[in-house]
Design a protein that fits this description.
- This protein is α/β, with parallel strands linked by helices.
- It has a domain at 2-230: Amidase signature (AS) domain (Amidase signature (AS) enzymes), CATH 3.90.1300.10.
- It has helices at 2-14, 22-37, 79-86, 135-142, 159-165, 199-209, 227-230, 253-268, 284-299, 317-328, 331-344, 350-373, 396-400, 407-412, 441-451, and strands at 17-20, 48-52, 90-95, 148-153, 168-171, 191-196, 239-243, 272-276, 376-380, 416-423, 429-436.
- Strands 1-3-2-4-6-5-10-11-9-7-8 form an 11-stranded mixed sheet, with helices on both faces.
- It is globular.
- The two termini are 30 Å apart.
- Bound molecules: glutamine.
- It holds the Pfam family Amidase.
- Heterotrimer of A, B and C subunits.
- Keywords: ATP-binding, Ligase, Nucleotide-binding, Protein biosynthesis.
- It comes from Plastoroseomonas hellenica.
- The active site is at 52 (charge relay system), 133 (charge relay system), 157 (acyl-ester intermediate).
Length: 452
């Protein structure tokens, strides 16, 4: 009830939720109370969560923050949300996001921008973005409008908003969480993961969200460890890699200082800091911005106005498709569909898509080689603190730079955790990122909780 009251008071300003399911939440909480009274509580019984509006929820509208899905009520539930409910979680509603999870600011939502609950000390009236695409999830957790949230991360969409809003968030290894019932953006990169106030809470949520699912052909048949037990585990003797290519010219001095501070904490805790090289990291952004739109252009072909979602009238079938897609998709989504269609076209496939796939393999190989020398890698989560609309947002290429530290993990399928690690001079939160080996989230949690 406290969370529902908080949402009523603050959501009109923050716009973190697209849909609030207060009545269902109270009912679910009462059922939880009954289970707890009988001593039958699950690991998340009564825990109120926000669900990114990209996860299909049976009987509850799921929009992907797009006009084209404004009236879509899924007849089924995603696997991740099914598992959270199985463990007793209570859903407060559906969290806002960038349309189809394409963006780093939440400015592309068809349901309006999300406000970051944080403000600059010297300029408290300027509204800042929460990051994206899972900006509603991050803002809800930061503003205490949920105890945790689900997100998805295709190129940084959990880790960047977590850093901008001062909360923790993890993108697990590709295949750790089922993608079944999550609206697809770029299927070879998309991964679900949790947000929470602490690294340990993320570990608890991730355990419930993880596990093999025969309904997702890329879901991995590996055991789900007790991630929580790894939090607080000693980092003594661990080797922590620092990629020299990430010491970018022009990186904000506060980010560099935070990074050094995080490494110093780890050194004090007995870890060894090792310089490593990821020679192909410099190609990660252009590679990502070919692969992701290519897959998106294919995935979004299903929104034709015939089977579900928005339908505009047309003279004939082609006209109906065109009018529906013209009215239903926002500008960024159209840009991605056009880029994707171009790089996959017969004349340009070899030059763009095929080349990007080859570089993707080289990026993955860089990590395999690095992980022979180190157990985890620590980098900044983002190149800056949260920005305001208009500061960074007018040019799509500048916007894409937000993902510079995060996209490599998606291209290589590796786990990455964003840990709130400090504040800048304006009092805004900054995050550090911990990357790990494939399916070694435990080391990531151990290192993350040592930094936290
Ligand atoms: N900002 C990146 C993009 O716009 C990543 C988004 C995401 O991870 N879903 O594609």
């Amino acid at each position: 009830r406290a969370h529902v009251a908080g949402i009523e008071a603050l959501n009109p300003r923050l716009n973190a939720y697209v849909t609030v399911t207060a009545e269902q939440a109270i009912e679910a909480a009462q059922a939880s109370d009954a289970r707890r009274a009988k001593g039958e509580a699950g690991p998340l019984d009564g825990i109120p969560l926000a669900i990114k509006d990209l996860f299909c929820t049976e009987g509850v509208r799921t929009t992907a923050a797009s006009r084209i899905l404004h009236n879509f009520v899924p007849p089924y539930e995603s696997t991740v949300t099914t598992q959270l409910k199985r463990d007793g979680a209570v859903f407060l509603g559906k969290a806002n996001l960038d349309e189809f999870a394409m963006g780093s600011s939440n400015l592309t939502s068809a349901y309006g921008a999300v406000q970051n609950p944080w403000n600059r000390r010297n300029d408290p009236d300027t509204v800042l973005v929460p990051g994206g695409s899972s900006g509603g999830s991050a803002a809800a957790v930061a503003a205490r409008l949920a105890l945790g949230a689900t997100g998805t991360d295709t190129g940084g969409s959990i880790r960047q908003p977590a850093a901008f809003c001062g909360v923790a968030g993890i993108k697990p290894t590709y295949g750790r969480c089922s993608r079944f019932g999550i609206v697809a953006f770029a299927s070879s990169l998309d991964q679900a993961g949790p947000f929470a106030r602490t690294v340990e809470d993320c570990a608890v949520l991730l355990r419930s969200m993880s596990g093999f699912d025969p309904k997702d052909s890329t879901s991995a048949e590996v055991a789900v460890p007790d991630f929580r037990a790894a939090c607080g585990r000693s980092v003594k003797g661990l080797r922590i890699g620092v990629p020299k290519e990430y010491r970018l010219d022009g990186l904000a001095p506060e980010i560099t200082a935070l990074w050094e501070q995080g490494l110093a904490w780890l050194r004090d805790a007995g870890a060894e800091i090792v310089e490593i090289s990821l020679p192909h990291a410099q190609y990660a952004l252009p590679t990502y911005y070919i692969v992701a739109p290519a897959e998106a252009s294919s995935n979004l072909a299903r929104y034709d106005g015939v089977r579900f979602g928005l339908r505009e009238d047309g003279r004939d079938l082609k006209d109906l498709y065109e009018k529906t897609r013209a009215a239903g998709f926002g500008a960024e989504v159209k840009r991605r569909i056009m880029i994707g269609t171009y790089v996959l076209s017969a004349g340009y496939y070899d030059a763009y898509y095929l080349k990007a796939q080859k570089i993707r393999a080289l990026i993955a190989r860089d990590f395999t080689e690095a992980y022979q020398k180190v157990d985890a890698i620590v980098t900044p989560a983002t190149p800056s603190a949260a920005f305001a609309e208009g500061e960074n947002t007018d040019d799509p290429v500048t916007m894409y730079l937000n993902d510079i530290f995060t996209v490599t993990a998606n291209l290589a399928g590796l786990p990455g955790l964003s840990v709130p690690a400090g504040l800048d001079a304006q009092g805004l939160p900054l995050g550090l990122q911990v990357l790990g080996r494939s399916f070694d989230e435990e080391t990531v949690f151990a290192v993350g909780s040592a930094i936290e």
